[in-house]
Amino acid sequence: MEHSFAEIFNIRPEIAELVRDAQGGLQSVFERFGRIAMVNQARVLKAFGDHRVSAMHMLPSTGYGYNDISRDTLDKVLAQSLQAEDALIRPQFASGTHAIATMLYALLRPGDTLLCANGTPYDTLLGVLGDESGHPPGSLRDMGVRVIIQPLDDAGCMDFQALEKTLEKERPKVVHLQRSRGYAFHDSLSESDIRRTCQLARRIAPEMIVALDNCYGEFTQTGEPTLWSADIMAGSLIKNPGGGLAPTGGYIAGRADLIELCAGRMTTPSTGREIGSYAAMYTPFYQGLFLAPHVVAQSLKVAALAAEVFERLGYETCPKSNARRDDIVQSVKLGQKERLIAFCQGAQMGAPVDAHARPEPWDMPGYDDQVIMAAGAFIQGGSIEWSADGPIREPYTVHIQGGLTFEHGKIALMVALNHVAEKGLLTL
Ligand SMILES: *Cc1c(COP(=O)(O)O)cnc(C)c1O
After folding, report:
1. Which residues have CB under 6 Å of ligand 1?
2. C-alpha 18 – ligand 1 centre gap (Å)
3. Distance from the CA of 96 to the center of ligand 1, in angstroms?
4. What is the Cα–Cα distance from 168 to 172, expressed in whole angstroms?
5. Mutational test site, ligand 1, from 98, 103, 179, 180, max ligand atoms within 8 Å of CB
6. CA-CA-CA-CA torsion sign (334, 340, 344, 350)
7. SS3 of 398, please?
C-alpha cells in the first residue's frame, strides 16, 4: 500500500524507500511550515471578511475600468494580507520585474542615488539598472540615476559595517533589498537582516526609502518585510501570492504615500490607480491569494524534502533541510553536467503539463552559460508550480522550486531521481 503510488511510475523501491525515510525525518520541520501557514491563512481570511468580499467582487470590468470595485477591493485585501498600509495588485504588471521596476522608477529621479544593499540584484533587474554607459536606453542609469552595489561578504551575508559606511557616504534616496537569494548559493535575507538594514537607514537619514524585492518570499514566514519596517516591496503573482491560480500579474505593497507615486507611474500621473480593467473574472486573483498560504507551505515541504533526500545521498544543499526558509527555492550542487540534465529532464517527466517533452540546455537571452529548465506548469513560467532549472556550469547546481501540492512535489521528485538512476548517474 505504502509504495503503490510509486509503482504507478515504476519508481525503484530503493528510491521510494529513500524518500519515505527522508520524509520521516522531517516531521518537526513540516510542523513548523504548518504553523506558519495557519497564521497566514488566518490573516488572509480575516482580510477577506473585513473587506466584505462577495460575489460581485469577482466580476470583470472593461475599458478604462473606472470604479472597478473588484480591483479596488483586491488592493485592500492584499494590503491587509501582507500587513501593508496600501497595495496595488494588477494583471497589467507583465512580470515581477515589471512591478519592481515600476516601484523603482516611481521613487527615483535624475540625480538620485539607488543603493543595492545586498549585492548584485537578480538577473532580470540588471537591464532596469543599466550598465555604466547607461545601456539599455530607458534604464535607471540612462535616466541619470546613480546606482551603487554593496557586495555581500565572502560568506554570502550582508556586510553591515560596510553598508553603514556606504550609507553615510552616499546618502542614497532608495535602498534596494532582495529578500530571496534568487539563484545564488547563500542564505536569503532574514527578518533580522531586513530590520537591521531599515534601522541603519533610518538612523542615518529618516527619509531614506527601503524598497524590497519580495519575489519568492511571501508567506514563507508569519510576517512580511513591510511589517519589519521596509517602506515598500513588490513581487510576482505567478509566484507565491498568486497561489498557482493567478494567470499573470504583479503587486506593490507598502506605505500609502509611496503607493500613490507607484500608481502614477503604473498608469499615468493623472490617472493613477483609477484606471485599469480586467475583462476576465477576478476570481483567480482572489482565490489564488486565499490559497497562497497553503500552497507556499506545500512548496516549502517539497523543498525541504528535496534537501533531505540529497543530503542523505551526500550532496551539498542550500538551504539545509531543517533550516529556516525565507523563500521557496532549493539549490543542490549536482557536481556533473549529465546529472543536472538528467534531473531536469526527469523533473519534466513528473510535471502535469508537457511531461512528454525533454528539455535541453539552451542559450537563454541575458545569461552567459547555457541553461536547462524543466517547467511543466499550467501557468507559463509559473514557478510556484513544480519546476527545476540550472545553468550549465560548475558545480552544476540545480534550483528546485514550487509544488502546488506536496503529493505532486513528492511524486515528481521521485520521478526525477528515478530518471537520474536509470541513466546510471545516482549512487544509492
Ligand atoms: C522571479 C524573481 C524576480 C522577477 O522575475 P520575473 O520573472 O520578472 O517575474 C525578481 N527577483 C527575484 C529574486 C525573483 O526570484
Report:
1. 95-97, 122, 124, 178, 180, 182, 213, 215-216, 236
2. 33
3. 5
4. 9
5. 180
6. negative
7. strand
- Residue in the block written with cell 540588471: 126
- The number of residues in the chain equals 428
Location of C-alpha cell 540545480 = 398
Return the amino acid letter for 242. Answer: G
96 Cα nearest atom in ligand 1: 9
Q: List pLDDT tens digits, range 34-79.
A: 999 999 999 999 999 999 999 999 999 999 999 999 999 999 999 9
* 224-247: pLDDT as tens digits: 999 999 999 999 999 999 999 999
Helix (H), strand (E) at residue 89: strand 86-90
Question: Which residue has a Cα nearest atom 6 of ligand 1?
Answer: 96
- In order, the DSSP letters of 44-55 are HHHHHHHTT--G
> Cβ–Cβ contacts within 10 Å for residue 411, how many?
20
Determine which residue's CA is closest to atom 12 belonging to ligand 1: 215
Report the distance separating Cα 85 and Cα 286, nearest Å: 19
Question: Strand pairing of 232-236 and 250-254?
Answer: antiparallel
Grid cell digits, residue 201: 537607514
Phi/psi region, residue 196 (left: phi>0; alpha: psi -120 to 50; beta: rest), is alpha
C-alpha cell at 148: 551603487
Compute, in angstroms, the gap from residue 236 CA to the centroid of ligand 1: 7
- DSSP codes joined into one string, 207-226: T-EEEEE-TTTTTSSSS-TT
Task: Give the ligand 1 atom nearest the CA of 250.
Answer: 9
pLDDT digits (tens, 9 = 90+) for 305-359: 999 999 999 999 999 999 999 999 999 999 999 999 999 999 999 999 999 999 9
